[in-house]
Structures are given as structure tokens and as C-alpha cells.
Amino acid sequence: MIIIRNGTLVLPEGLVRADLAMEGGRIARIAPSVEAHEGDEVHDASGCWVMPGLIDAHTHLQCWTGIDWTADSFETGTRAAACGGTTTVVDYATADRGVSMPDALAEWHRRADGTCTANYAFHMAIAEWGEGSLEQLDEMFAGGVRTFKTYFAYDHLKLDDAQTLEVLEAVRERGGMLCVHCENGALVNELQRRVLARGVVGPEGHPLSRPAEVEAEAVSRLLYLAHLAGDAPVNVVHLSTELGLAAIREARARGQRNIHVETCPQYLVLDDSRYLEEGEDGFAGAKYVMSPPLRKPSDRRALRRAVLSGEIETIATDHCSFNMKGQKDRGRPDAGGNFTMIPNGGPGIEHRPAVVATTFGDELGPCDLVRLMSENPARVFGMWPRKGRLAEGADADVVVWDPAARWTISAKTQQQAVDYTPYEGFEAHGRAHLVFVNGELVARDGEPTGVMSGSYVAR
């Protein structure tokens, strides 16, 4: 057995001083004291919180955009996740146009199986809908995929409203949920054209072409479509604006059910002034080109209040990493590029727990952090009660968190296989001291042990 002693356990019912024992990939015992026997491995967690492994339910690992591969593979991305305290990721497999859902799922398994330090599950992103789609949807449920994604933006991915309605109905009938990228793609295309016509070509043009109204309109439209589909369960991913939040509040006030909401650390910590950063080469603002973009300080404040009030249930990363050199720098204006050529996405899979714990240090305690980054994701995405809690019989995904640790986030010391972090220089309070995945120690104080014990999570 592996025994964690003298820690403060973060349980669904509250904080408890107790020992925890793991065996056979499961939590075997929780008790005031667990006696060790010969051959047992004992870890002292004095002064630490013992938490269920954290879950990042929005990642894009080893993903081909048509031009680029993301910088992080499943191997590097799940290793970085585990070093930060995340023991399960839910990645977006994508059935591009002309590719069936079963073929896409098989391809994502090929990329991930046998390479992961953290556990992994899949959503299935659907880029076309028509003959044969219902049968493919049934195959997804049989393969352990019960959450799906559609887009209102990106010409090569987006579905129209009628197709989205059909997907919502089909997913609801099967007991699943639809996650939706809420930006009005037609407006984005037109606004990009207008911003470029004004001569704005640098990274600061990115948020100008994707204003808050573009998100809020799409959020509102999604919720009306979901209501037409019988209050089909939906997850509004990466919410970034106060206007989008207002649309969610309006739908809830009408009595609409089954609305889930996710945001990301970047929208809780950073704002759109970052696009004006120049850095050594005058192009540092490209670090923050992601969609949706960073928003106004007022949006950040509104989202933080919504996290504290429980209106936002989960915090994920939308980790989609591209290197500054060789990828994002294709959009450099001095080389004939512009902001539309900068690959959209940013890294965060490693630093989410520390960033959230630090920035909400005076407002959220360990139970709140577990609720937002472990329990709620497990419940919303179909992994509860196996994951998201410390309980006898639950999976042995366990994080020993040292709240007294003080360290600085830096690209020079990160595990993410990307050449920058948007949180460079962030003074973090708290760190994952020990991280166990399926009962095996995979990381210690931000460094991997080399054990790759992650497994596929069928839901």
C-alpha cells in the first residue's frame, strides 16, 4: 500500500485530519490513522492538503490545425498537467469534414494510448452533420464518449443553426451533453476584414475583431436552440465576457435547465492590455492571441464574481499551445504578416492550479478549489463518483498540495513543450508537492518521476 499520513484531507463534506491509503489503483482506506506494514510506502503530508486529482476538461493536445501541430503532444501535455496537479484531462478529438467520428476517435487513441502521465478522456468535436451521423453518435457512446462539441465560428468547423439543433436533440436523447464554441463566425470574418482595412495588423487587432458582442450573441443563440431541443444539456466553453454571462443569467431566469458554464484562468487573471506588449522583438502581444481573446478588466471582474457565486461551475484551460518561434511569428507585421495569421491558442495545462489558487487566495479555500477543478468537472462530464472525490473505492488520483510553497512561473522551468507561458513571472502561492495517478507517484514538486500511469477514462 501507499499511505499518505498527517495531511488535511479535502473531502466532499469538508476538511478532515486523517490518513489515506491507496492500493490497486483505488483509494483503499481513509481513517484517523492507517498502520503501515513491511513493504508499504509512506509519505508525510504534514502541513499539506490532500486533494482528489484535478481535472482539466478542455484541452487540445497533439492537434493538427491544417497548418500547424500544437506544440504539446499527449506525452508532454499530460506530463505537464500532472506536474501541476491535474490527473485527468478531457481532450477534444475532432472529426474534421470528410472524417467519421469513429475514425477520429481511433486516431486520437493512436496519439494518446501508452504515452500519458495523466489520465485522459475525449470529447468529440463534430464538423459536419448529415447522413450516418446518428449511427456514428451511437458508436461514440459505445466507445466511452458522451460529450460533444460544435462551433459557431471557424469556416472549416462550424455548423449552421439547424444542424446544431439536430445535434442538440440527438445528444439529449442519448443522455449526453454538447459543448459549444460561442463566437459568431460570420461577424468575426467581417470584423477581421474591417480591422485590417483600418491598417491595424498587429496582435492588438485580434480583440478588436472579436468584441464581446460576438460572444454574447452566440451564447444567447445557443441557449435558445438548447431550449428548443427540450433544454438539452449544454456547456458554454471558455466564457470570457460579462455580456455572455448576462445571456446565461437571462436563460436561467427564464427557467431554462441544464446550462453548464466553464471559464479559463486567462480570463480571470489577464486583460486585453496584454496585446500591446512589445517585449524584446516588438511582438510579445502574440502570446495572448487565443479565441476568445483576453477581455476588458470589467469582464475579468464580472467573471471572478461569477466564479465566487457558483454561476461558473468549472475552470479549464483550453490549452492549445503554439511556439512563438516558428509558429506565432508567422503573423509578424514586419515580415508581411498580420494578426489573422497568428495561430490561435495558448498554454496553461501545467499552471492552472497554481494560478487559480493564488489569484483567489483570499476568497477560495481548498474545498472551493476542489469543487471548481475536480468535483464539478467530474460531475458535469460523467466521471463522478469514480473521480473528483477522496473516498474509499474511488480512483487513486491524489494530489498532496503544499499551500506554503512559493515559486515563480517561468518558461525556463516549465514542463510544457512550448517556448513561452502567458504567466511569465507570476508569483505562485501553493504547489503540487506529490501527485499520484492511478496510485502511482508521477510528479514531485513540479518535476516528473518518469512514471506514465495515465489510462483512458471511458464515460
Explain what you see:
The protein is α/β, with parallel strands linked by helices and 459 residues long. Helix content is 29%, strand content 23%. The strands form two sheets. Strands 1, 2, 3, 4, 5, 14, 15, 16 and 17 form a nine-stranded mixed beta sheet that branches. Helix 4 (161-173) packs across helix 7 (212-228) and helix 7 (212-228) runs parallel beside helix 8 (242-253). It starts with a strand and ends in an 11-residue tail after the last strand.
Write the layout of secondary structure elements.
Blueprint: E1 2-11, E2 14-23, E3 26-31, E4 41-44, E5 49-52, E6 54-59, H1 74-84, E7 86-95, H2 101-112, E8 119-126, H3 133-142, E9 147-151, H4 161-173, E10 177-181, H5 185-197, H6 205-208, H7 212-228, E11 234-236, H8 242-253, E12 259-263, H9 265-269, H10 297-309, E13 314-315, H11 352-359, H12 366-380, E14 398-408, E15 427-437, E16 440-444, E17 447-448
Helix pairs in contact: 4-7, 7-8
